[in-house]
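Journal club prep — side note

Before the paper discussion, L.F. wants everyone to see what a predicted structure for a comparable chain looks like in token form. Sequence:
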Amino acid sequence: MSYLALFFTLLSLLPIFLLIKIKRSSNSCRLPPGSLGIPVIGQTFGFLRAMKANRAEKWLQDRVDKNGAVSKLTLFGIPTVIIHGQAANKFTFTSDTLLSEQPKSFAKLVGKRNLLLLNGEDHRRVRGVIMPFLKPEVLKQYVGKMDGEIRNHIDVYWQSKQEVTVMPLMKILTFNVMSSLLFGLEPGARRETFLESFQYVLEGILAIPVNIPFTVFHRSKQASSRVKSMIIDLIHEKRLALEKKEVLPHQDLITSLLSIHGEGNEALFSEQEIVENVMLFMMAGYDTSSSLLTLMIRLLAIDPAVHAAVLEEQEEITKSKRSEEPITWEDLTKMKYTWRVALEVLRITPPVFGGMRKTLKDIEFGGYLIPKGWQVLWAANMTQMDESIFPDPSKFDPKRFENQASVPPYSFVAFGGGPRLCPGNEFARIEILVLMHYLVTGFTWKLSDKVNNFTRNPFPVPTKGLPIRIQRKSLL
């Protein structure tokens, strides 16, 4: 080709190059403000340091103050956009253009067919199958069983003790309650083996997913296989028991899922989906409920006024019952102040800091472009500590939740929102209220350690697990 021909060829391609450059320049101008930082690394280390020091909310707020409600940075090797505010929360929980995003280690340990990682129609189908078991009218029948588990826990771990470390005990309690109610695993060696393996699985959720010997992830992967095998054994046992009519269809979560069929009598849940969703519910309830219970016990130790009000409410319930009579659903409906205290704890210190979504395609939000494949970060505390929504947000005030309908939509998102609302929130409410009843009416306690702060890992973890000195008030 002559130089003249080459010149005219390049000249003919010039408009295409100009269009590409203009488009790229236009897209670049439409990206949110902020810096992506050093490639791959970005602001990851700063974010993790802030999480560990329990300053992540301020770390994010500083960026909002500097760049506005929508800004970009790089986290965990991926370009990320922080979005902030009620509209941002609604967009996060309701948009079909955003995929739920979790660490790769989570998908490798749990699987991809669970409610947290499913999207669109699959998410709606699985949620629709699970929700009937977790509705209040169904959970009513499990209050007595939960009451028995909690009384047994107190007998074993609290009675005759002078000091306890709260957080490890709350994890044992939440595991035992879920083992009993979600899949009918009774106390004994089998439950203890399950707990040991389950704890190893949790260690690898945020680990680097490299499956080679002597790594945390390798141990977690092996534990995950054991846990899944145990759940499969339970599924087979319960399927056989259902066929023989030895158990009721809604005796626990597994029997409930096995009993649901479509119009053609086909099973709506595969065995894999049952296994993964049982693991998901165990993980979700294990850390979130134990964190909330620990923080409530901590609060009642340092706030005499709140403690007195909770105690007064719970003692009124005790007066109306016969000795040793278990808590009932009707009793729970009277624990309004205690639950408002729990909600205010969740507002100020949500166990789940926030979450990630990933864009399925180029999308627009707040006048900015968020390219396909980018992450979107939301944080619960960003709206829950917004003084324009919750005046004097640092003040602990359970009255904020006297009329929950007055709380603006998508501003209190401790349980998520919309189609991503936590399906286990009613289950958690029962567990928290029953335990609080027996603790405040049966014991007094004080903090054992003057250091009274906590870090995030990623859930709130009090210093030394929150050791407290306890004194028994009366027989339960």
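L.F.'s comment for the group: DSSP finds 18 helices and twelve strands in the chain. Keep this in mind when we get to the figures.
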